[in-house]
Amino acid sequence: MYKLVLVRHGQSEWNEKNLFTGWTDVDLTERGMREATEAGKTLKNEGFQFRYAFTSFLKRAIKTNQLLLEAMDLLWIPVEKSWRLNEKHYGTLQGMNKTEMVEQYGAEQVQLWRRSYDVRPPAIPDTDARNPRHDARYQGYNDPAATPGTEALIDTVGRIIPYWTNNIRPKLHEHQQVLVTAHGNSLRGIIKYLKHISDNDIVSLNLPTGIPYVFELDEQDNVLKDYFLADDETLKKLMEEVANQTRQK
After folding, report:
1. In the 8-state DSSP scheme, what is residue 248?
2. Separation of alpha carbons 117 and 238, rounded Å
3. How far is Cα 198 from Cα 146, in angstroms, rounded to an integer?
4. Disulfide-capable partner of 9 in 31, 44, 61, 134 (CB 3.0 to 4.6 Å)?
């Protein structure tokens, strides 16, 4: 049996401000740092002993991974970073308040941009300094998916599944346990694939920040069991917090 642990980064500064974040490289809040440390303590208490970890190119995931591994006394293990684990790119919505966008464009349109499987927000032009093609960390990649101006979940799934197949899965089978610290939408892509969730149903999955999500898999990647390492009351509260982001400033 193999154990895959997925952790969405701790609360970020723009989570706290209720802003669309995407590929914008914002830091963790104090709460986010606590969440990361507590996730590590929980995993240590549950007996996890990782020998390999993955994270994205964005500091909120990188720092969550570091704080989590520090709490487990595992800072020494290899950590592989990839842009393919980045959050969904929200185009011109990045930096905008979610509630204010609802007031301007309507709840239905913002929900489509935020959560639909195949509707992309308006794109950031190639000439805009905020476009990833102007960021040093994404230069040198031939894949145009590495420098998007916008994405829908279908695009995020499209870049994450090859990474699962070619990178994460082999390390999981080598080490039996692997940690992936990333973002709501990149992790939803992995979850969709493993649990065979439909395009319609995946949009309603809300991942809380800083709560380990454990998958127990067999040799063929069939899910034997999956569960969050949190009590039901805490989990429900945090999931509702994610679901209601467009209703608060």
Report:
1. -
2. 22
3. 25
4. 61
87 in active site? yes
Q: At residue 141, what is the residue type? A: Y
- The two structure tokens encoding residue 101: 């966008």
Alpha carbons 76 and 241: distance in angstroms, whole number: 34
- List the pLDDT tens digit at each of the 249 positions of the chain: 999 999 999 999 999 999 999 999 999 999 999 999 999 999 999 999 999 999 999 999 999 999 999 999 999 999 999 999 999 999 999 999 999 999 999 989 998 898 889 999 999 999 999 999 999 999 989 899 999 999 999 999 999 999 999 999 999 999 999 999 999 999 999 999 999 999 999 988 989 999 999 999 999 999 999 999 988 888 888 888 776 665 554
- The half-sphere exposure of 158 on its side-chain side, counting CA atoms within 13 A, is 12
Which of 9, 89, 175, 183 is catalytic? The answer is 9
130 Cβ neighbours under 8 A, 6+ residues apart: 24, 94, 124
Q: Give the CA distances from residue 6 to residues 65, 88, 97, 216, in Å, rounded to whole numbers and listed in that order.
A: 11, 16, 27, 11
In whole angstroms, how far apart are CA 49 and each of 44, 74, 177, 235? 7, 8, 7, 24
Catalytic residue (choose from 35, 38, 87, 151): 87
As a whole number of angstroms, the distance between CA 65 and CA 36 comes to 7
Show Cβ contacts of residue 216 under 8 Å, excluding neighbours closer than 6 positions. Answer: 1, 2, 3, 223, 224, 225, 226
Q: Which residues contact 146 (CB under 8 A, 6 or more apart)?
A: 83, 132, 138
